[in-house]
């Protein structure tokens, strides 16, 4: 199998971490959807990454679908609980973290438009989403070690990828100072080989 990624994408990083934690071997293929010669639109009609290309040539997208597929491939290190209540809670955390990433990516993309076309109101709107999302993460984590229950799960992976992307693109957001419990969680996650190997660089 192959995972088509951009090295800085938080969504691609989430898939990479899940594959590593599940011990599913996947070849990494770097391809920017914005490049004129990108093959991504041929693999995903929406032209977005990540894309999982299976051995028979079939493709899966987006990241939420891919991580569910990878989690079901093997019983090793289940990241999405089978029980309904915990399962829904983990998926809710993933949606929250992905929403923060969506807002952050929109700000980055807006900043690449010609200055006269950029909207300060639009950027401020996305920043408010990020601020509310981080606060909700902190409130939900409270004093727990992990986001859901007492085990590492997809919820923690998604949150870690979101916070890591903020570190990469938004150094001015001091989420560690505002939310020490998220800083503690991130410090735990940063020790895992899957997070170390997938860490983005500017």
Question: Roughly how much helix do the residues carry, as a percent range?
Answer: 55-70%
CATH class of the largest domain: Mainly Alpha
The spatial strand order of the largest sheet comes to 2-1-3-4
DSSP strand (E) fraction? Answer: 5-15%
- Runs in which pLDDT lies below 50 for 5 or more consecutive residues are none
List the SSEs and their pairings.
Elements: E1 2-5, H1 10-22, E2 27-30, H2 40-43, E3 51-53, E4 59-60, H3 63-73, H4 84-111, H5 120-141, H6 154-169, H7 175-178, H8 180-190, H9 193-198
Parallel strand pairs: 1-2
Antiparallel strand pairs: 1-3, 3-4
Helix pairs in contact: 1-3, 1-6, 4-5, 4-6, 6-8
Verbal overview:
- It is a single chain.
- The two termini are 27 Å apart.
- The protein folds into two domains: 72 residues, Glutaredoxin (3-Layer(aba) Sandwich), CATH 3.40.30; 109 residues, Glutathione S-transferase Yfyf (Class Pi), Chain A, domain 2, CATH 1.20.1050.10.
- The protein has a four-stranded mixed β-sheet with strand order 2-1-3-4.
- The model has no long low-confidence stretch (mean pLDDT 96).
- With 202 residues, it is α+β, with helices and mostly antiparallel strands.
- It is 57% helix and 6% strand.
- Strand 3 and strand 4 form a beta hairpin.
- It has nine helices and four strands, in the order E-H-E-H-E-E-H-H-H-H-H-H-H.
